[in-house]
Amino acid sequence: MKRDYSKRAKFYAPYKDSFFADFVNLEYALYDVMVIPRKKIEEIRFASHMLWGIFCKVARVLPHMPKEQLLALGLRQDMLPYINIDYLNEMAVLARFDFICTDDGRIKCIELNGDTPFLVQETFEMNEELCAEFGVNSPNDTKQFVKGMSQALFQAMQYIGKADKPKVIITGKTAEDDIEEHCQVKFIQNALPFDIEYIPIKELIIISEGPKRGLYTKALERIDILYRPAHPIEFLLDDVADDGDLIGLQLLDLVRDKELAIINAPAAYLLQSKILLWLIWERRNDETLFTKHERGAIKRYMLPTFLSDAPFLEAGRAFVKKPVFSREGNTVEIFDAHGDMQIASPNRHYTDNLYLYQEFTEMPEVTIQLKDGTHKKKWLIGSFMVDGKACGVACRVGNAITEWDSHWMAVGVE
Question: CB count, 10 Å around CB of 356?
């Protein structure tokens, strides 16, 4: 449906201080809604529900594997002492699947963002506003988002044994450092019905030894629970203070010793690893691991994934090469059936990772309106899991590799 682009600026103007409709010379938020048939929305939710159980089942096996195998699967050695710290009802209270909805009606999962998924504010706030603007229903359940995120707080309180007025902080980058991250963090802070203080991540203080060991604010108030919706576990592993202290690992030590709870819990690191895509596909026919319905869901909703490109070259099929830990299309490459690279991300931040090889599936096209005219782009569906329930969908519109410069389009239900 053609939209009146001239109304875009007026629509987003009231949100200019709380939402990033435009950033880094990118018209990020489109003035449009992708209307998807109700049956398709229901199938996306069903696929999300089934795959969530499958991913969590396999991820929970990993801590019981030998250390050598875990290292061979691309897990970081310095993370191994923490991967079984799992105190929430779900391995991650907030996660997002990415699905390709093909032109011939298939739904295929390309990955799970299992720790700190973005698109939260777009899905649980702005989507409803766009749908109201265009007179369509939103498929997203903001009440479940608030309920699930709130439940995690109570579970964290139980873990550290502090039921009486815990100090709860939500953290992330400042607006000056990263406006997208800042808006997401502030949205979550304002959405939850609790007294949660925002403190920029660079202002947090760790005391690693002695009787006052713990995480603190600048005013030296002890923090009991830390929401970190935009700072991944794998980033913590590389967080180092100016004096060389490994402050990320010191924070994880506090969590291990129940001096602090973080949301998501450290176990979410396992869900973030794309190695699960291979492990699940490798065991797809295993009747001792998966039920009949789970095996059916794997074959219906997942893509063949291997640790080398050989199966695709032998079969003459195109494939995608991706690191086991990467974000926003970074370091992803697409190859044709002959093994010749066709497209590569210009961003190469994850070249030290183990790589997976996944069957290539073409994303469908959509025509969007930008300031300089219409453009044909590819679109990808994100499906949010909050406390184990599929409750929100989002649409990103971009190129053959969905990267940081993609656009967001609201989703309505037909």
Answer: 25
